[in-house]
C-alpha cells in the first residue's frame, strides 16, 4: 500500500499514482477485499470501500468522466469484478444512499451487454468503449473474460438465467472465433475487426484465470449442463499449465513477457488474478482443489523467495523462478505475491454467498442508467479549484508586469529573479551577449536528469557548439521538405478521428500521439505507432518519457538544494528511455555495417532517418543517445501543443476555417509539396497567429555568469540600462511579449490571422515575436515543426468541412517546460459530404 496515495491528504480515492492506469487501482481494491476475506484483518476495509465508491461515476457504473478518454471494457470490468467479490463475500455494505455492491456489478454488466456487437466478427465486445480511442477496432479476450466472469457470477448470485445466457453466448463466441482453442484450451489475446481470422497469439495468465472462475460459477448453477462445464473447467486447467514453468513446471510465470524482460506495468500484475481466480474456482468446483493447490503452494514459496528487494528489503520481484529479487518493484509484483500466498488458505475460508444464502448486498437489475448504449463522451467539468490552479502562473506574470513594470525583481523559490518583458533585453541575453547568459537554474534542472550535461539542450559554451554542429546538418531543408514521413502519421490521425459526424473527442490527445509517432519515425526510423498498435515496449517508452518529463519538472521546482535527493523511479524511467533509443541506435549501426559502411540498406526503405545521418559522423554511443533524446524532448510536446492551439482557435472561428478551406482548394492537390505549403499565405498566417497567442514555450530563462548589463530596466522609469550581478537568473515570458499592443495592435488578445498581412506596426518582428526563440540557439526544428503543422492542417481540411469547439470550460493553460490545455481540446469535426 506504500504505492497507493488515495487515502492520503490530497490523494484521490481509488486512483494509483501515474503511470499506473485506472483499471489496476480497481484490481487493487479487489486485492484489499481478498486480503480481508482471507485474513479477517479489517485495517484496509475503509480504504477499499472509499476507493470503490469514489470511482463509480455519475451513473454508478464505473464510467467516471475523467477516465472515459481511455476506458476499455476490460478496465471497467476489473472494477465490476471487484464489487462482485464484495457482494459474494459480504464485504461491509456501502452506507445508506450509496449503490450496493451488487447493483454496481449489475451496472457494469448492463452497460457491457449493450455493447455486444454482431456486425464485426459476429459478436463480442470491442476492447475500447469509445470510437475515438486507440483499440476501438480490436476485440480482445480480456474484455470478453471480464464480461463472462461477471455474467456467470451474477447468474449464480441472483439466480437470474438471463445472465447465464450471456455467459454461454460469450463462451460460444470465444470458441467460434478461435480466440479460445478447444483443442488446447489456450486463450489468445485478440483480433482486429478488419480481419477476424488474424489472431494475435499472445497468451496471458489473467485470461485463463477469469474464464476459469466464470466457468466454475456456471458449473455451480448448472444441472443439465454440469458435465459440459466440468469438462470445460478441466480443459481450462490443462490449458493454464502453460503458465507454470521451472524444473517441476509448477511456478507461475507470465510466459509472453517475463522470460524476455518485456512485461509492462499492466502485465506485471496479471499473475495476481490467475492466483486469485484459481483459488476461487476450488469453492465452486471442489475437485479442482487437488490440482490447483500444489501449483499455488509452489508458486507462493517461489514468490516469497523474491521478496527481499527495495529500500525496505521486503519488496517482491516479478520473476519467481529466479528465487531471488530481480530488481523490479511495483504494485503488480506486490499484489501477485500476496494473492499467491493468500490463495493457499482457500480451504479455510468461507464459501461465497448468494442472494438467498446469506448475501446482503442490494441489487438493481436496471442499473447503468443513461450510460447503457452510450458511445459519446461525457466530459469532465472543471472545478473552481482546478480553474484557479491551472492558469495562475501566466496570469501572475501578467499582473506583475502590469503593476511592477516590464523589468522587475521578484522572489521565486527563495531566490531573487529578474523578470523582463523587454525585447531589447531578450535580444541581449539570447543574441548579442549570449556568452554571458548560459542555460542554468530551473531551465537546466528540468532537463538535466534525462539528458545529462552534454546534450544540445543542456550544454553551454564549447560543448553546445559541438552538439549544435553535429545536429544542424540533419535539419537541412531537403529533409524537412520530405513529407512522406508526416503523411503516414497524418493518415493514421485522420483514421483515429471518430468517423461519425459531430462526435465529441479530444484532438489534443490524438495530436500528442501523432507527434510522438512522427518524431520517433523521423529520428529512429521506427515509429512508436501510438495511433495504430503500439508494442508494449513502445508504450512503456512513452510512459517513461512522460513520467521523466513530469518528474524532472517537479524536481526542478524544488530548487537546487532538494534537487539532488534520490528519485529511484525517475532514474528507472530515464534508464528505460535511454535503453529504448539505444536499441535503435545499435540496430542502425548493425545495418550500416551490414551494408559495408553505407546507409543504402535502409535508404531503400525510407527516405530519411535522422539517426543514420548522425552516424555518418561516427559519434560515441552515449553522446548520440543524449542528442536524440534532446531532439525528441524539444520537438514532441512543442509541436503537439502548437497544433492543438491552431485547432483550438479554428474551432472558435468558422470564418477563418472557411477562408482556409478556400485557400486549400485553390491549390488543387491532395498532397501538397513543401513549396506549395510555403506559398499558402493564409494558412501560414493562421499558424503564426496561433503561435503568437499560445507559444508552446511560454516562458524561458537564463542566468548571468558574470556581472553584466541589460539595456532596459534601470533608471526611474525603467528605460535605462541596468547592472546585473553575477549569478542572477532572468526569466522572460513570450506569452506576455506577444501581447504587446505597440507591436500587435489594439486587440492583442484576439485571434486574427489577417493582422499578419497589413497592420503590424513593427517589421521585422525579430525580437518581438519569438515562439522559436532567437539568436544562435534559435530552435533547430522550426522548419520541421512549421511544415508538419501546415501539412496537418491542409490534410485535415481536405477531409473535414468544419471544426466546432465543445466543452464550456474557460481558456486554461498548464505551464511546464511547455504549456498545454489541461482539460484537452474538445472538438467535433464535420465530414465533407
Ligand atoms: C512549434 C514547435 C516548436 C516550438 C514552439 C519550439 C520552440 C523552441 C524554443 C523556444 C527553443 C529554445 C529553448 C531554449 O533555448 O531554452 C527551442 C530549441 C530547440 N528546438 Fe524547438 N520548438 C519546436 C519544435 C521543435 C522540433 C520539431 C524540433 C526537432 C525535431 C526542435 C528542436 C529544437 C532543438 C534541438 C533546440 C535546441 C537548440 C539549441 O539550444 O541550440 N524544436 N525550440
UniProtKB/TrEMBL annotation:
Record's keyword terms, sorted: Glycoprotein, Glycosidase, Heme, Hydrolase, Iron, Membrane, Metal-binding, Monooxygenase, Oxidoreductase, Signal
Gene Ontology CC terms: endomembrane system
Statement: the UniProt record of this protein carries the keyword DNA-binding: no
Swiss-Prot/TrEMBL cofactor(s): heme
One example of a Gene Ontology biological process annotation: carbohydrate catabolic process
Stored Pfam families: Glyco_hydro_76, p450
PROSITE patterns: CYTOCHROME_P450
Major enzyme class: hydrolase
Record SUPFAM superfamilies: Cytochrome P450, Six-hairpin glycosidases
E.C. number: 3.2.1.101
Keyword check for Iron: yes
UniProt main location, coarse: membrane
Residue span of region Disordered: 353-372
Binding site for heme: 779
Record field: catalytic activity: Random hydrolysis of (1->6)-alpha-D-mannosidic linkages in unbranched (1->6)-mannans
Cellular localization per UniProt: Endomembrane system
Molecular function GO labels: heme binding; iron ion binding; mannan endo-1,6-alpha-mannosidase activity; monooxygenase activity; oxidoreductase activity, acting on paired donors, with incorporation or reduction of molecular oxygen
PANTHER family: MANNAN ENDO-1,6-ALPHA-MANNOSIDASE DCW1
Family membership noted in the UniProt record: Belongs to the cytochrome P450 family.
Protein name from the UniProt record: mannan endo-1,6-alpha-mannosidase
Organism of provenance: Parachaetomium inaequale
Amino acid at each position: 500500500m506504500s504505492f497507493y496515495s488515495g487515502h492520503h491528504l490530497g490523494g484521490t480515492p481509488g486512483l494509483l499514482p501515474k503511470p499506473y492506469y485506472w483499471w489496476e487501482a480497481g484490481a487493487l481494491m479487489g486485492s484489499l477485499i481478498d486480503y480481508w476475506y482471507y485474513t479477517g484483518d479489517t485495517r484496509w476495509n475503509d480504504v477499499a470501500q472509499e476507493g470503490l465508491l469514489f470511482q463509480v461515476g455519475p451513473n454508478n457504473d464505473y464510467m467516471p468522466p475523467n477516465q472515459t478518454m481511455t476506458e476499455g471494457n476490460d478496465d471497467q470490468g476489473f472494477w465490476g469484478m471487484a464489487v462482485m467479490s464484495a457482494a459474494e463475500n459480504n464485504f461491509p455494505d456501502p452506507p445508506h444512499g450509496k449503490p450496493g455492491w451488487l447493483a454496481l456489478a449489475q451496472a457494469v454488466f448492463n452497460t457491457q451487454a449493450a455493447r455486444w456487437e454482431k456486425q464485426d466478427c459476429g459478436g463480442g465486445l470491442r476492447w475500447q468503449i469509445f470510437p475515438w480511442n486507440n483499440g476501438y477496432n480490436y476485440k480482445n479476450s480480456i474484455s470478453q473474460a471480464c464480461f463472462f466472469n461477471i455474467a456467470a457470477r451474477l447468474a449464480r448470485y441472483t439466480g437470474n438465467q438471463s445472465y447465464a445466457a450471456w455467459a454461454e453466448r460469450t463462451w460460444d463466441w470465444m470458441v467460434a472465433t478461435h480466440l479460445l482453442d478447444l483443442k488446447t484450451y489456450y486463450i489468445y489475446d485478440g483480433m482486429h475487426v478488419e480481419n477476424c481470422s488474424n489472431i494475435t497469439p499472445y497468451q496471458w495468465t489473467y485470461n485463463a484465470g477469469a474464464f476459469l472462475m466464470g466457468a466454475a460459477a456456471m458449473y455451480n448453477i448448472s444441472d443439465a449442463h454440469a458435465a459440459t462445464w466440468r469438462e470445460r473447467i478441466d480443459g481450462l486447467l490443462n490449458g493454464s499449465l502453460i503458465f507454470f514453468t521451472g524444473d517441476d513446471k509448477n511456478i507461475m510465470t507470465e510466459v509472453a513477457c517475463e522470460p524476455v524482460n518485456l512485461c509492462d506495468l499492466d502485465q506485471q500484475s496479471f499473475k495476481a488474478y490467475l492466483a486469485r481466480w484459481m483459488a476461487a474456482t476450488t469453492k465452486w468446483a471442489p475437485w479442482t482443489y487437488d490440482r490447483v493447490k500444489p501449483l499455488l503452494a509452489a508458486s507462493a514459496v517461489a514468490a516469497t523467495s523474491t521478496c527481499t528487494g527495495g529500500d525496505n528489503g521486503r519488496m517482491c520481484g516479478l520473476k519467481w523462478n529466479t528465487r531471488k529479487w530481480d530488481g523490479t518493484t511495483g504494485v503488480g509484483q506486490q499484489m501477485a505475491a500476496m494473492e499467491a500466498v493468500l490463495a493457499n488458505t482457500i480451504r479455510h475460508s468461507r464459501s461465497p454467498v448468494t442472494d438467498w444464502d446469506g448475501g446482503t448486498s442490494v441489487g438493481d437489475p436496471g442499473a447503468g442508467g443513461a450510460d447503457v448504449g452510450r458511445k459519446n463522451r461525457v466530459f469532465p467539468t472543471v472545478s473552481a479549484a482546478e480553474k484557479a490552479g491551472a492558469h495562475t502562473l501566466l496570469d501572475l506574470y501578467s499582473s506583475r508586469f502590469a503593476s511592477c513594470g516590464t523589468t522587475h525583481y521578484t522572489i521565486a523559490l527563495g531566490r531573487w529573479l529578474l523578470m523582463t518583458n523587454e525585447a531589447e533585453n531578450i535580444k541581449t541575453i539570447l543574441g548579442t551577449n549570449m556568452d554571458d547568459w548560459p542555460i542554468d537554474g530551473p531551465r537546466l534542472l528540468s532537463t538535466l536528469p534525462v539528458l545529462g550535461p552534454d546534450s544540445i539542450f543542456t550544454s553551454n559554451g564549447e560543448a553546445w557548439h559541438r552538439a549544435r554542429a553535429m545536429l544542424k546538418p540533419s535539419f537541412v531543408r531537403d529533409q524537412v521538405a520530405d513529407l512522406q514521413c508526416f503523411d503516414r502519421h497524418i493518415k493514421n490521425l485522420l483514421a483515429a478521428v471518430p468517423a461519425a459526424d459531430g462526435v465529441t473527442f479530444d484532438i489534443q490527445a490524438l495530436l500528442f500521439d501523432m507527434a510522438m509517432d512522427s518524431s520517433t519515425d523521423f529520428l529512429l526510423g521506427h515509429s512508436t505507432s501510438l495511433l495504430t498498435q503500439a508494442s508494449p515496449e513502445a508504450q512503456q517508452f512513452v510512459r517513461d518519457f512522460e513520467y521523466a518529463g513530469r518528474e524532472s519538472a517537479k524536481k526542478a521546482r524544488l530548487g537546487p538544494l532538494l534537487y539532488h535527493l534520490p528519485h529511484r523511479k525517475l532514474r528507472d524511467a530515464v534508464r528505460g528511455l535511454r535503453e529504448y533509443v539505444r536499441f535503435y541506435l545499435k540496430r542502425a549501426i548493425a545495418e550500416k555495417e551490414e551494408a559495408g559502411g553505407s546507409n543504402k540498406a535502409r535508404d531503400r526503405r525510407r527516405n530519411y532517418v535522422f539517426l543514420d545521418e548522425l552516424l555518418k559522423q561516427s559519434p560515441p554511443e552515449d553522446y548520440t543517445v543524449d542528442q536524440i533524446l534532446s531532439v525528441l524532448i524539444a520537438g514532441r510536446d512543442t509541436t503537439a501543443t502548437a497544433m492543438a492551439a491552431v485547432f483550438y482557435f479554428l474551432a472558435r472561428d468558422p470564418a477563418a476555417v472557411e477562408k482556409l478551406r478556400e485557400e486549400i482548394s485553390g491549390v488543387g492537390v491532395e498532397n501538397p509539396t513543401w513549396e506549395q505549403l510555403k506559398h499558402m499565405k493564409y494558412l501560414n498566417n493562421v499558424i503564426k497567429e496561433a503561435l503568437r497567442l499560445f507559444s508552446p514555450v511560454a516562458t524561458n530563462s537564463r542566468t548571468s555568469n558574470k556581472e553584466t548589463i541589460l539595456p532596459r530596466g534601470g533608471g526611474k522609469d525603467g528605460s535605462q540600462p541596468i547592472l546585473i550581478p553575477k549569478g542572477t537568473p532572468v526569466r522572460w515570458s513570450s506569452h506576455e511579449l506577444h501581447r504587446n499592443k505597440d507591436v500587435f495592435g489594439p486587440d492583442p488578445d484576439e485571434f486574427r490571422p489577417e493582422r499578419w498581412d497589413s497592420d503590424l506596426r513593427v517589421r521585422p518582428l525579430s525580437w518581438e515575436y519569438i515562439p522559436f526563440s532567437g539568436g544562435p540557439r534559435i530552435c533547430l526544428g522550426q522548419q520541421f515543426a512549421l511544415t508538419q503543422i501546415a501539412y496537418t492542417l491542409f490534410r485535415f481540411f481536405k477531409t473535414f468541412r468544419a471544426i466546432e469547439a465543445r466543452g464550456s470550460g474557460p481558456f486554461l493553460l498548464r505551464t511546464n517546460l511547455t504549456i498545454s490545455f489541461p482539460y484537452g481540446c474538445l472538438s467535433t469535426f464535420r465530414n465533407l459530404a
